[in-house]
From TrEMBL:
This is PQQ-dependent sugar dehydrogenase. Residues 63-405 form the Glucose/Sorbosone dehydrogenase domain. Coiled coil: none annotated. Residues 31-48 have a biased composition (Acidic residues). Residues 18-51 are annotated as: Disordered. InterPro entries: 6-blade_b-propeller_TolB-like, Glc/Sorbosone_DH, Quinoprot_gluc/sorb_DH_b-prop. It comes from the Archaea.
């Protein structure tokens, strides 16, 4: 397939401090970025010293709401999921040729649900497992976040031996807030995000604060779906054994820091209140008791400020109510060779704001820098850093939609 190339000049926007815990706000947002008011993100890197020229190339196009991307270890091929179609494809990075794979599970493609994230076993190809997250229903029609895996055998255009590994409980009658990012940590465990499913109370507490269920949580599983014997709450009868962290609303972004091995996660607030967090073992991230979000349609805080409640883990970066927010989806730390100035930076997709966010990270200090892809009208769904000098690959949420890559100008 022919590739179309575009030039993108970075930093050509009004200078000023970008949204965050100390800024004035940028982008449109709120909720899960599923709707946009059409306003443009503002702000830029104040000195422009690390802006670089970028070429945006189309890798493949004509996709139906791509949601997850993952490279095979050879760096030449990537797996792409399409949410509504429930389709998994293998894409040649250079030619753009796309091969749909059989053997995928039946999914529930309502609302925010469908075939969602994809990850490759860290021991691939010796462990030839491809992991998928997806929404599916039970016999009553209620739906839940699922994790499954199948074998990707060389030369076979399908996943074989697909098996369900885990379904987050309880299933609810909602088609939103599935969370559904999955990554492998440096410890070899699979970490799965599950949103609060827009479901308020489980017993006397909000689901994200009631640890006898798996909603509003990050789950930690062994590669075969079993519960690791070193999970943080195994000895606590009031917490599900799978839970690693809780108090989340709808985390759709997660990535492993290439140097520290820490898990970084971004999640949607209600009206603004979007957050970037570093996951701590057994941590409670506050939703909805402690959050910087406001209630929809008002300036009324949803809960207390996280910095006023010591029992909750504070975000390392956040967007306060009234800032415009940063509804995030997809995350990647850049560790390639094509952009030396970006090494170690965190990239997050902005949905309603329609741009790619770049964040300079120093320890747990985070600063948003100049936005990228601001002039395309693209909702950014997923990001993946290609091995070597392959650039940064970005999935656009739309129908039809492309996968593009950013390479040096």
């Amino acid at each position: 397939m022919d590739r179309r190339s575009y030039l993108s000049a970075l930093g050509v926007v009004a200078a000023g401090s970008l949204a965050g815990c100390s800024g004035n706000g940028s982008g449109d947002g709120g909720s899960d970025g599923e709707e946009s008011d059409g306003s443009e993100p503002d702000g830029a890197d104040t000195d422009g010293s690390d802006t670089v020229g970028v070429t945006v190339e189309t890798v493949t196009e004509g996709l139906e709401h791509p949601w997850g991307v993952a490279f095979l270890p050879d760096g030449k091929r990537l797996l792409v999921t399409e949410r509504d179609a429930g389709r998994l494809s293998l894409v040649d990075r250079e030619s753009g040729e796309r091969e749909p794979l059989g053997g995928t599970p039946e999914v529930y493609a309502g609302g925010q649900g469908g075939l969602l994230d994809v990850a490759v076993h860290p021991g691939f190809p010796d462990e030839p497992w491809v992991y998928l997250t997806y929404s599916a229903t039970n016999d009553t029609g209620a739906s839940g976040t699922h994790l499954g895996r199948g074998r990707l055998d060389p030369g076979a255009a399908r996943l074989s031996s697909f098996e369900l590994l885990h379904a987050a409980e309880p299933f609810v009658e909602s088609d939103g807030h599935y969370g559904s990012r999955v990554v492998f940590g440096t410890d070899g465990a699979a970490y799965l995000t599950v949103g609060d499913r827009q479901f308020k109370n489980f017993g006397p507490d909000h689901v994200a604060q009631n640890t006898t269920n798996e909603l509003g949580a990050t789950l930690r599983l062994a590669p075969d779906g079993s519960v690791p014997d070193d999970n943080p709450f195994l000895e606590d009868p009031d917490v599900e054994d799978t839970i690693f962290s809780y108090g989340h609303r709808n985390p759709q972004s997660m990535a492993v820091h290439p140097e520290t091995g820490e898990l970084w996660q971004a999640e949607h607030g209600e009206r603004d209140g979007d957050e970037i967090n570093v996951l701590e073992r057994g941590g409670n991230y506050g939703w909805p008791v402690a959050t910087y979000a406001c209630e929809y349609g008002t300036d009324d805080p949803v809960g207390d400020r996280p910095d006023e409640r010591e029992e909750f883990v504070e975000p390392v970066h956040y967007w306060e109510c009234g800032s415009g927010g940063f509804p995030p989806s997809g995350a990647a730390f850049y560790d390639g060779e094509a952009f030396p100035a970006w090494r170690g930076d965190l990239f997050l997709g902005n949905l309603a704001g329609e741009y790619l966010g770049r964040f300079a990270v120093d320890g747990r200090s985070v600063e948003e820098r100049e936005p990228l892809l601001t002039d395309r009208g693209w909702r950014i769904r997923a990001i993946e850093s290609a091995p070597g000098n392959g650039g940064l690959h970005v999935a656009i949420d739309g129908d039809p939609a492309p996968i593009v890559r950013l390479v040096p100008e």
